[in-house]
């Protein structure tokens, strides 16, 4: 089977995408598959590399361009029989339903969540409203638009300080990997945090900050949904930014998390419910806060979480009993299953015979 590994992209998380893709291509079963690298640069140009029956030796080799290895192609290059796409893209223009919509139009099976789940999971504000509808516990939050901030900053301060207390966390609505996220302990820091977040998105969310552990649960499946053991981010300080998570690798993963079986089962159940409410399929990582009093608050759902060699998602499954290479194979099989099920549905009224 031909595996189109799509990575890079236009978002601020493109570097993590390359590292994730490098780890994935290292773990493919090359006796079963041929891997075709598809690199998308910052301008949105698609570059296709040569078919490979062995992985690249370094992530740097995977950055394709006109000057080096790589041929400029259109997305239509993916339309081949017996092929599956792995859209290993984080953030906007990849994890947000856009690439998924393109793959749906092209009629290509692909790994991960569909258009709806990807779009909802990427948008922190939308997911919070969905979580409210099904009663998942979460922290108070205030959504803000760039227009509102530019025209009515006093109203924004009133909303935040009227319903939340410091510290607050300010986040772009459609971004991950801690890009553009800041902690604000007073109004001056809130102002700076809001201005930073609006550099990455036109909508942001401001959340109540609490003292809590950060725990995460991996989800895998299509109709039959499975959850992993719960892991914890071991932190020496309250907040880790992008560099500390991915460049310096300062975050320690504690798997399984030192929590009771009762709390673990609650978190796993909440993760399954969150996956279901966004219509998830394939994979997701659900992130939670856990207080000293064992209060659980869901934070967000990542529909294509980091897949680097030190990322939480594959390590959670490894401890649960599913090795990295088998995890990738499982995801490919789930992609094919979903694709076949969708193709079996009636697409037009003429497909349905009289009496049905």
How would you briefly describe this protein structure?
The chain has 356 residues and is α+β, with helices and mostly antiparallel strands. 34% of the residues lie in helices and 23% in strands.
Low-confidence blocks of residues? none
How many individual domains?
A: 3
Order of helices and strands: EHEEEEHHHEHHEEHEEEHEHEEHH
What is the gyration radius calculated from CA atoms?
21 Å
Give the N-terminus to C-terminus distance in angstroms: 36 Å
Protein architecture, described:
The strands form 3 sheets. This protein has a 5-stranded mixed β-sheet, sandwiched between helices. The protein has a 5-stranded antiparallel β-sheet with strand order 12-11-10-13-14. It has a 4-stranded antiparallel β-sheet with strand order 6-9-7-8. It starts with a strand and ends in a 13-residue tail after the last helix. It is 34% helix and 23% strand. It folds into 3 domains: 2-110, Rossmann fold; 140-208, 2-Layer Sandwich (Dna Ligase, domain 1); 213-342, D-amino Acid Aminotransferase, Chain A, domain 1. It contains 11 helices and 14 strands. It is an alpha+beta fold.
Task: Kindly list the characteristics that best describe this protein.
single chain; D-amino Acid Aminotransferase, Chain A, domain 1; five-stranded antiparallel sheet; 14 strands; Dna Ligase, domain 1; 356 residues; alpha+beta; five-stranded mixed sheet; globular; Rossmann fold
């Amino acid at each position: 089977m031909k595996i189109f590994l799509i990575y890079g992209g236009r978002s601020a998380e493109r570097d993590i995408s390359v590292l994730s893709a490098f780890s994935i291509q290292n773990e493919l079963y090359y006796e079963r598959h041929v891997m075709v690298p598809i690199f998308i640069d910052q301008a949105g140009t698609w570059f296709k590399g040569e078919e490979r029956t062995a992985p690249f030796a370094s992530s740097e080799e995977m950055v394709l361009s006109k000057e080096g290895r790589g041929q400029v192609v259109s997305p239509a290059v993916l339309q081949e029989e017996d092929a599956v796409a792995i859209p290993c893209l984080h953030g906007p223009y990849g994890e947000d339903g856009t690439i998924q919509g393109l793959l749906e139009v092209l009629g290509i099976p692909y790994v991960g969540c569909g258009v709806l789940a990807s779009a909802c999971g990427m948008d922190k504000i939308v997911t919070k409203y969905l979580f409210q509808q099904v009663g998942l516990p979460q922290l108070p939050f205030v959504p803000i638009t760039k227009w509102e901030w530019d025209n009515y900053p006093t109203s924004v301060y009133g909303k935040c300080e009227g319903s939340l207390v410091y510290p607050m966390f300010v986040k772009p609505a459609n971004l991950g990997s801690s890009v553009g996220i800041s902690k604000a302990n007073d109004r001056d820091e809130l102002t700076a945090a809001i201005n930073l977040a609006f550099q990455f998105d036109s909508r942001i969310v401001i959340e109540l900050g609490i003292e809590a552990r950060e725990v995460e649960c991996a989800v895998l499946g299509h109709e039959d949904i499975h959850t992993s053991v719960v892991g914890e981010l071991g932190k020496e300080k309250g907040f880790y930014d992008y560099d500390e998570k991915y460049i310096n690798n300062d975050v320690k993963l504690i798997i399984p998390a030192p929590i009771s079986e009762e709390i673990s089962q609650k978190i796993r159940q909440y993760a399954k419910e969150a996956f279901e409410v966004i219509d998830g399929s394939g994979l997701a990582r659900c992130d939670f806060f856990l207080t000293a009093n064992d209060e659980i608050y869901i934070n967000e759902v990542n529909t294509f979480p980091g897949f680097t060699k030190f990322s939480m998602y594959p390590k959670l499954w490894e401890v649960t009993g599913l090795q990295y290479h088998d995890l990738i194979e499982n995801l490919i099989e789930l992609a094919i299953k979903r694709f076949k099920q969708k193709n079996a549905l009636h697409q037009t009224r003429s497909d349905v015979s009289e009496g049905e």
